Request: fold
Amino acid sequence: MRYVKLPNENFDEFFNSLKNWGKVYAPVKQGNIYTFKNVEKLSEVSLNYTRTMLPPKKFFVKPRDEMLRLKDSRWEKCGEAEKTVLFGVHSCDIHGLQILDKVYLDEPADPYYKERRENSIIIGISCMPDEYCFCKSLGTDFAMSGFDLFLHELPDGWLVRVGSVRGHEISWANEELFEEVSEDDLKNFRAFEERRAKAFKKKLNKEGLADMLDLAYDSPVWKKYEKICLGCGNCNMVCPTCRCYEVCDKWINAYEAVRERRYDSCFMVSHGLVAGGHNFRPTRLDRFRHRYYCKNYFDPEAGFNCVGCGRCDEFCPAKIEHVKVLDEVREALE
Amino acid sequence: MSEDTFQTHDARILEVKDLTPREKLFTLRFADPELSRNFKYRPGQFVIVDIRGFGEFPISLCSTPTREGYFQLCVRRVGRMTKYMHELKEGDIVGIRGPYGNGFPMEVMEGSNLVLVAGGLGMAPLRSVLWYAIDSGKYEHIYLFYGTKSYEDILFRDEITHLLKHGEAMNCTVKLAYEVESPSCIYLEKGFAPRVCKGVVTDLFRGEEFDVTNTYALICGPPVMYKFVIRELLDRKLSPGRIYMTLERRMRCGVGKCGHCIVGTSTSIKYVCKDGPVFTYWDALSTRGLI
Amino acid sequence: MLKLGVFELTDCGGCALNILFLYEKLFDVVKFYEIKEFHMASSFKEHDHLDVAIVTGTVSTQRDLELLKHARSHSNYLIALGTCATHGSVQGGVEGKIREKLEKVYGTKANPMKALDSKPITEYVAVDYALPGCPYDKDEIYQVLMNIANGVEPPKKDYPVCIECKLNEYECVLVKKGIPCLGPITLGGCNAICVKSGLGCIGCRGPLPKDANPAGEFEILKELGYDEEYIRKKFKTFARGELRW
Reply:
């Protein structure tokens, strides 16, 4: 990997230069949450944000996504992908996008996702974990690919890892802003990573997790959480790897309609329903367990379906904790 | 092609036939002759029907690819889309995309006996296999065990009676079980006993032995049926790898994106639309929630 | 052309008015529908037979009941529009018998208005489509009417308010501010309009039809420090005690 250094005094100029590559979106504080928003100035950006409510997935599969527009009883494909720069993406979310890539870019590729993905630049940023983070346990705390540039905090600037040709082009175009990386910088980088590694409070025991869960199909723990869980689907909506969507046609006037998809949740009763009324996941227990199975499915190529970002915990009204549920299931089995 | 992954193509309804009070058979052809010529599918695959402006629904192809120039869908009136479909007439246009799914491995099964076990609407996808097998002549012997509620519910009744009469000449044995007695059923039973009887589909296995080294079973029916049929097959020592089932889920996309058909547990997750809809019983044993 | 009638029983009038708020989209509606009765819009009235009847409000008087039965028997497709019609809303939630209430207020049990205990229309007649909301989102009735006009059964929603709240990226008032919000157990479709303004959901669309977990919600609100009586009242404001735990 190629490393360069961005000194603090050049940070502003570097940030402004990103606008040449597309519309810049970055994490911004809004009330008590963070959200990726279009920003003009670096000062608007919350550089040390914890996590946005909706993950950057929202740029590639939009929460509400117009797919097709009906004109003269034929569908026309909607939307041109705009050039986008996602600034300040955390490592877990980069991993999340790579998991979604496996789904949406698998042939036949989703044309909307593909176009948007091709038209976007991902600039990662280092972070410190809070009480919800457990990415370290899943190995998603460090991104080795899936970004164009990755900014690591240094006392006097940023150590920048260049992850793609496009990333290289960006640093190249702003050559004068970057310096060579010094021994001290590397020392500081390592020190930051060590400090970060020690800061994790939550730990997931992933040893034999997939098999353990499979054996725990009838665990009493599911029953316990069936009572606590509201089945509201918030955990699905904020998850960086949840990919379910529902499709709905809507009329915009007497003769024109749009086909729109929106995020869906496997907590909805209709999710496991088939024509004729049979439901494959009729109870909340079935649906609760299904989510844990889906998130903790281990794909030998892609790893787990969970990146440990902590969103489901932070936004669960019932304060259900992902790691705690899994620990309890494990405990009940032993 | 990914550009039009979700685009649907005009297909004209050539014929609408009432099969039962609930089911209609639609014969369709793509309006674009080139598309029509290039439309290739396998028994067990499905298409997505698009009622533009209102929604889409997945449905299995019930015609055989051996008969070209058209394709057929057997539509039961159950939901808002199928209800609308039932109102359509000859000449009307619907959108179609597909075919999707894996379909039955017809080549693998060549030279073997096929035991088709259908319950209710499960007859639709198996009809594709049935006529494919008869038309191609590449299979040893074809059995069709068909369980139906009543005489009125028999799908493709004329074809079934035709095969009851003349099936043996085509290496095909058809057996029919009905649950609700009626004069028509008794009449059928009189003509074709013991191949037609009162009972459930598993009753049709009575007295049947298969060469399990050279037989494949293909099942489709309501979810409750699988357990009982599979027990009959396992009792006869048919390997779970030789039992194929085609499953139904509420697919939105048909191409492994929308997540509605995800089944399984942490050790095995499957998308019914792209990993299936045809699975072996072994798949079901190793993927919980499949049936 | 389909024949459409809008019938108003006892309510605030907002649900009927909301149809008029479709503004320019009303022109799309009248491309498919001939309006045969709509008290708030026109004095014109003619209904031997209607294809679609929209009924708003609760049955609170004998007159309401007769009008409802008339609407039902003269129409092919009846839509219960708004929470009054679907769940009984606020007036349906008032406890006690009508005669006792009359006596309490007027000092006599006499009932010259022929008032009845307020109930949703779903208690009296079969309803083809129920669209709750106080008021409902006007685009919802538009979509329903467009579907029916094209011969398609309108789709039904089954998700809680939280889904649309998240789709719109509104800050969760329950989790982040401790504001009592019934969003997780309330049927969505409103586009989370209350949360948009920083308010908690008051449950105006009634409980999630199939899988609400009011007991879980109750515990969460109690944990946040709200007393049981307050929560109980909140639960039954629109849903007439349908939310039991």
